[in-house]
Amino acid sequence: MMDYFHEESVTKINAGLNSLIYVICYIGMVIFALFAVQGLMTILNGVISIPSIVITLICGALAYGCFVLKNNQRIEYDYTFTNGILDIAKIINNSRRKKLLSVDIREFEVIAPISDEGFKRMLNHKGIQNRYNYFLNPGPRLYYGVFTHDGVKSMLVFEPSDKMLELFKIFNPRNVKTK
Asked: What is the C-alpha to C-alpha distance for residues 116 and 144, in angstroms, rounded to an integer?
Protein backbone atom coordinates (compact mmCIF):
# COMPACT_ATOMS: atom_id res chain seq x y z
CA MET A 1 0.00 0.00 0.00
CA MET A 2 1.19 3.47 -0.83
CA ASP A 3 1.87 5.85 2.06
CA TYR A 4 0.40 9.33 1.92
CA PHE A 5 2.35 12.04 3.68
CA HIS A 6 2.29 15.78 3.32
CA GLU A 7 3.41 18.52 5.67
CA GLU A 8 2.96 22.25 5.34
CA SER A 9 3.37 25.34 7.46
CA VAL A 10 1.01 28.26 7.56
CA THR A 11 2.61 31.61 8.27
CA LYS A 12 1.10 35.05 8.42
CA ILE A 13 1.32 36.76 5.03
CA ASN A 14 1.37 40.39 6.15
CA ALA A 15 3.61 40.23 9.20
CA GLY A 16 4.93 43.82 9.13
CA LEU A 17 2.99 44.97 12.20
CA ASN A 18 3.90 41.77 14.02
CA SER A 19 7.60 42.34 13.31
CA LEU A 20 7.35 45.89 14.69
CA ILE A 21 5.60 44.65 17.84
CA TYR A 22 8.25 41.93 18.18
CA VAL A 23 11.09 44.47 18.15
CA ILE A 24 9.32 46.85 20.56
CA CYS A 25 8.57 43.99 22.96
CA TYR A 26 12.16 42.76 22.77
CA ILE A 27 13.49 46.21 23.68
CA GLY A 28 10.87 46.60 26.43
CA MET A 29 11.72 43.18 27.83
CA VAL A 30 15.42 44.06 28.12
CA ILE A 31 14.76 47.49 29.67
CA PHE A 32 12.22 46.23 32.24
CA ALA A 33 14.43 43.25 33.09
CA LEU A 34 17.36 45.58 33.76
CA PHE A 35 15.18 47.73 36.08
CA ALA A 36 13.95 44.59 37.85
CA VAL A 37 17.50 43.29 38.36
CA GLN A 38 18.64 46.70 39.59
CA GLY A 39 15.76 46.82 42.09
CA LEU A 40 16.52 43.27 43.21
CA MET A 41 20.18 44.15 43.75
CA THR A 42 19.11 47.14 45.84
CA ILE A 43 16.92 44.91 48.00
CA LEU A 44 19.67 42.31 48.36
CA ASN A 45 22.10 45.03 49.51
CA GLY A 46 19.84 45.69 52.50
CA VAL A 47 17.91 48.71 51.26
CA ILE A 48 14.46 47.31 51.78
CA SER A 49 11.56 49.63 51.22
CA ILE A 50 8.02 49.13 50.02
CA PRO A 51 8.43 51.33 46.90
CA SER A 52 11.58 49.47 45.77
CA ILE A 53 9.85 46.09 46.22
CA VAL A 54 6.78 47.27 44.30
CA ILE A 55 8.86 48.77 41.47
CA THR A 56 10.94 45.58 41.23
CA LEU A 57 7.82 43.41 41.03
CA ILE A 58 6.16 45.69 38.47
CA CYS A 59 9.28 45.79 36.28
CA GLY A 60 9.64 41.99 36.51
CA ALA A 61 6.01 41.51 35.53
CA LEU A 62 6.34 43.95 32.62
CA ALA A 63 9.50 42.14 31.41
CA TYR A 64 7.65 38.82 31.49
CA GLY A 65 4.64 40.35 29.73
CA CYS A 66 6.89 41.69 26.96
CA PHE A 67 8.50 38.24 26.66
CA VAL A 68 5.13 36.52 26.23
CA LEU A 69 3.83 39.16 23.80
CA LYS A 70 7.08 38.97 21.79
CA ASN A 71 6.80 35.20 21.44
CA ASN A 72 3.17 35.41 20.32
CA GLN A 73 4.13 37.57 17.34
CA ARG A 74 5.87 34.70 15.55
CA ILE A 75 3.39 31.87 15.30
CA GLU A 76 3.02 29.23 12.62
CA TYR A 77 0.67 26.31 12.25
CA ASP A 78 1.99 22.99 10.95
CA TYR A 79 -0.50 20.73 9.20
CA THR A 80 0.76 17.18 8.84
CA PHE A 81 -1.20 14.56 6.92
CA THR A 82 -0.11 10.95 7.37
CA ASN A 83 -2.22 8.15 5.88
CA GLY A 84 -5.54 9.78 6.73
CA ILE A 85 -4.56 11.41 10.02
CA LEU A 86 -4.40 15.21 10.20
CA ASP A 87 -2.14 16.57 12.93
CA ILE A 88 -2.04 20.27 13.68
CA ALA A 89 0.69 21.85 15.78
CA LYS A 90 1.41 25.43 16.79
CA ILE A 91 5.00 26.63 16.41
CA ILE A 92 5.82 29.48 18.73
CA ASN A 93 8.79 31.71 17.87
CA ASN A 94 10.42 28.95 15.81
CA SER A 95 11.45 27.22 19.01
CA ARG A 96 8.49 25.54 20.72
CA ARG A 97 6.05 23.08 19.21
CA LYS A 98 2.65 22.51 20.80
CA LYS A 99 0.47 19.72 19.48
CA LEU A 100 -3.09 20.99 19.12
CA LEU A 101 -5.18 18.42 17.30
CA SER A 102 -4.99 14.96 15.78
CA VAL A 103 -8.01 13.69 13.88
CA ASP A 104 -8.78 11.05 11.28
CA ILE A 105 -10.00 12.60 8.04
CA ARG A 106 -12.65 9.89 7.76
CA GLU A 107 -14.32 11.35 10.88
CA PHE A 108 -15.20 14.57 9.04
CA GLU A 109 -18.83 15.05 8.04
CA VAL A 110 -17.84 17.93 5.80
CA ILE A 111 -14.77 19.87 4.72
CA ALA A 112 -15.62 22.89 2.58
CA PRO A 113 -14.65 26.50 1.93
CA ILE A 114 -16.08 29.00 4.40
CA SER A 115 -17.91 30.57 1.45
CA ASP A 116 -20.09 27.43 1.40
CA GLU A 117 -23.65 28.04 2.61
CA GLY A 118 -23.24 25.37 5.28
CA PHE A 119 -20.56 27.32 7.14
CA LYS A 120 -22.92 29.93 8.63
CA ARG A 121 -25.36 27.20 9.56
CA MET A 122 -22.60 25.29 11.37
CA LEU A 123 -21.43 28.43 13.18
CA ASN A 124 -24.80 28.59 14.91
CA HIS A 125 -25.22 24.82 15.32
CA LYS A 126 -25.85 24.08 19.00
CA GLY A 127 -24.48 20.54 18.80
CA ILE A 128 -20.91 21.68 18.10
CA GLN A 129 -19.08 21.71 21.40
CA ASN A 130 -15.52 22.60 20.36
CA ARG A 131 -14.38 25.18 17.84
CA TYR A 132 -10.79 25.18 16.67
CA ASN A 133 -9.55 28.22 14.76
CA TYR A 134 -6.11 27.25 13.50
CA PHE A 135 -5.43 29.82 10.80
CA LEU A 136 -3.43 33.02 10.52
CA ASN A 137 -4.70 34.62 7.31
CA PRO A 138 -8.40 35.37 7.25
CA GLY A 139 -9.88 35.37 3.77
CA PRO A 140 -11.23 33.27 0.96
CA ARG A 141 -8.62 30.49 1.34
CA LEU A 142 -10.13 29.30 4.63
CA TYR A 143 -11.90 25.97 4.94
CA TYR A 144 -14.03 24.56 7.70
CA GLY A 145 -14.54 20.99 8.76
CA VAL A 146 -17.05 19.38 11.11
CA PHE A 147 -16.07 16.14 12.78
CA THR A 148 -16.98 13.95 15.70
CA HIS A 149 -14.08 12.69 17.76
CA ASP A 150 -14.58 10.65 20.95
CA GLY A 151 -18.28 11.50 20.86
CA VAL A 152 -17.66 15.26 20.76
CA LYS A 153 -18.80 17.20 17.71
CA SER A 154 -16.27 19.86 16.76
CA MET A 155 -15.58 22.39 14.05
CA LEU A 156 -12.17 23.25 12.63
CA VAL A 157 -11.39 26.39 10.63
CA PHE A 158 -8.02 26.20 8.89
CA GLU A 159 -6.21 27.02 5.66
CA PRO A 160 -5.09 23.88 3.85
CA SER A 161 -3.30 23.94 0.50
CA ASP A 162 -4.72 22.39 -2.66
CA LYS A 163 -2.33 19.44 -2.24
CA MET A 164 -3.66 18.82 1.27
CA LEU A 165 -7.26 18.95 0.01
CA GLU A 166 -6.43 16.39 -2.69
CA LEU A 167 -5.16 14.04 0.00
CA PHE A 168 -8.31 14.62 2.06
CA LYS A 169 -10.39 13.64 -0.98
CA ILE A 170 -8.55 10.34 -1.32
CA PHE A 171 -9.55 9.30 2.21
CA ASN A 172 -12.98 10.96 2.44
CA PRO A 173 -14.17 11.66 -1.14
CA ARG A 174 -17.87 12.22 -0.39
CA ASN A 175 -17.42 14.83 2.33
CA VAL A 176 -14.68 17.07 0.92
CA LYS A 177 -15.82 20.01 -1.20
CA THR A 178 -13.35 22.21 -3.01
CA LYS A 179 -13.83 25.53 -4.76
From this structure: 9
